[in-house]
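ok so I'm stuck.
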Amino acid sequence: MKAIWKNEVIAESDETVVVEGNHYFPISSVRREFLTSSDKTSSCPWKGTANYYSLKVAGAMNPDAAWYYADPKDAAKEIAGRVAFWNGVQVVK
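replied:
not stuck anymore, here's the structure
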């Protein structure tokens, strides 16, 4: 699977985990030069608190376009150390 935004491959892995239709990529497969920390958080009753990254590619910013669970609840332990994408990021095979 690949996560692509602005014609750049942000992440690529054959070992994504799919939860609720979202592919969670291992953090090691994400090109960190495109990630910018965000202060945004959200809460899921069964996964826990999500933290976000914004993407920056060729001067363009995509706010809060990636999220991860730093300390997921037990029901979501399989997504620990993984990042998912949305907000215009294409996830393709």
